[in-house]
Amino acid sequence: MNNVPTLDALVPHAAATQIVEELELLTASKVPDAAPLVAHLVQHAEEIAAASESFRRKLRGKLGREWLYSFMRHWLAAELKRTQSALFRRLPPRYAMGAAEPSLRPPSERARLMNCSE
Question: Where are the beta strands (DSSP E) in the chain?
């Protein structure tokens, strides 16, 4: 039995959903069939978390959420390059390296603004 701690299931799903929404804002277009992209990002995060202590350590750190968003941007860019090259070419150059577009509000800030409990 594997006792390696994995990610809380909701965290990668929420992050992946926000990253796909960010992609729609960046490209000014609706991503066709976004659900498989979200599922791909979630699965990738869970697999890497299960296999890599350094990845888990980064996510547990102070900037864990930002690390997760950065990794997901990178993975999403790779998947788009493989499956939707026209959409991939519309991304800013640094997006494939995980960088957020400065003109957009970061997903973590959008999430904080949506939190009604504060």
Answer: none
